Amino acid sequence: MLDQITKVHDESRQGEAFAPAAIEPNTYSKKFYIESYGCAMNFNDSEIVASILNEEGFGSTRNMEEADLILVNTCSIREKAEQTVRNRLNEFKGAKKRNPGLLVGILGCMAERLKSKLLEEEKLVDMVVGPDAYRSLPALIAEAEGGQKAVNVLLSREETYGDISPVRLDNNGVTSFVSIMRGCNNMCTFCVVPFTRGRERSRDAHSVVREARELFENGYREVTLLGQNVDSYYWTNEAGDETVTFAMLLERVAQIDPLLRVRFSTSHPKDITDEVLHTMAKYENICNYIHLPLQSGSTRVLQLMNRTYTREWYMKKVDRIREILPDCGISTDIITGFCTETEEEHRETMEVMEYARYDLAYMYFYSERPGTLAARRYQDDIPEEVKKRRLAEIVELHRRHSLEGMQREVGRTYKVLVEGTSKRSAEELFGRNDQNKVIVFPKENYQKGDYVMVKVDSCTSGTLRGTAVSE
Ligand code: SAH
Ligand code: SF4
Ligand code: F3S
């Protein structure tokens, strides 16, 4: 999916930064260059920003040197994510020297967390714009062009950008994100997101369906419904006579066309209901894939994290998923070395991994974030080398599970949605199966956007290889 994206770093889940393809540069009088870090929400927000800027006469460019405006959409999830951005800012200093009129703006979660402090700490920054303030970008740019530093970090209880059609930046023309909600009310103690993204709010269901339908009509074949916590989606219209839950929204999007695949990310285990699982089972085009962040396999640590479930409850949820959706792919997020975590509790995490046998896992060691509940309440007392050793252990365990999972696929046949040409060879295509596994196969006469039945012949730990078979 991120095939055409300029890869800059590998920090979080969708962990890649991109510079967009130029959009008809001649129709715009000025140019902006944008890089995005962090999660898919940020990538999608950059597409909203691109839409707002296009209206203002700014076209996007991939070439930083010809830009009038550089924007960095930032992530605060771990210290390293912020450091990556600060290092990148240093690299923009040369561009600013060569073009003194160049404006540099910081968007996203670091903007929200650090606010005007960022202007003091990073002298080259002209604008600081939080995730709910993108509509004010034209006014902020005007201010900055007038020589003022410009800041808007107001969080909103209503803003969903529901009426803005995102300009697709990473444009493979087949898969796309659609934001359905913003913010998070969960207050996991380790997490900065509730502070950087504000309160949870759900987007108008009709605008979600409209956007997904337009994508389908424009040739897209897969949408991923996005939110920090999608399964707590809950929208009521103004008259109060229409209420849409996440399961209902999933169903409405799935009904657009059987050829439109539907995915979603991310789900908090506490909110994945049977209603959602049954809706997934009912529609062939809702992909059998659930991201179910575990964080820790120890009930005591889960409590300290305020995750609201126990180890046993989580394992039962895994059982329930497998009962209703027997071939569902499950992925997870895990944090090692959270405050006071013991060796025994670390082993408990590995036991749950053995139980769930995740297809994919994003694993991190705990990084204390200023202002979070954990930073205020607990001591970050696990030495870094212990955190890293525990991380290495779970990474190794997961590597074994995912390789076993891939080996099990050899000999099976899957319906693959083709996303593009393989990076390795122009003679091969790549796509994903329902369970989100990447499959590479010889091109023959197939094209991007086709559904192809592919029999898996071999695998590595990350990729399945196969050949197209007739149905
Ligand atoms: N809303 C998403 C999480 C987004 S952040 C969800 O609940 O699934 C993605 C992942 O980053 C989290 O699931 C967690 O595993 C990790 N993470 C968040 N804060 C962290 C921190 N302070 N240190 C290390 N990892 C963290
Ligand atoms: Fe952070 Fe928890 Fe919200 Fe996810 S659910 S964004 S981990 S507070
Ligand atoms: Fe990072 Fe903000 Fe997303 S902190 S993970 S960009 S919500």
TrEMBL record:
Residues 170-404 form the Radical SAM core domain. [4Fe-4S] cluster 1 binds at C39, C75, C109. SMART domains: Elp3. The keyword rRNA processing does not apply. InterPro entries: Elp3/MiaA/NifB-like_rSAM (IPR006638), Methylthiotransferase (IPR005839), Methylthiotransferase_CS (IPR020612), Methylthiotransferase_N (IPR013848), Methylthiotransferase_N_sf (IPR038135), MiaB_methiolase (IPR006463), rSAM (IPR007197), rSAM_horseshoe (IPR023404). Transmembrane segments: none annotated. Binds 2 [4Fe-4S] clusters. One cluster is coordinated with 3 cysteines and an exchangeable S-adenosyl-L-methionine. One of its GO terms (molecular function) is tRNA-2-methylthio-N(6)-dimethylallyladenosine(37) synthase activity. The keyword Cytoplasm applies. It catalyses: N(6)-dimethylallyladenosine(37) in tRNA + (sulfur carrier)-SH + AH2 + 2 S-adenosyl-L-methionine = 2-methylsulfanyl-N(6)-dimethylallyladenosine(37) in tRNA + (sulfur carrier)-H + 5'-deoxyadenosine + L-methionine + A + S-adenosyl-L-homocysteine + 2 H(+). Monomer. This is tRNA-2-methylthio-N(6)-dimethylallyladenosine synthase. It comes from Chitinophaga jiangningensis. The gene is miaB.
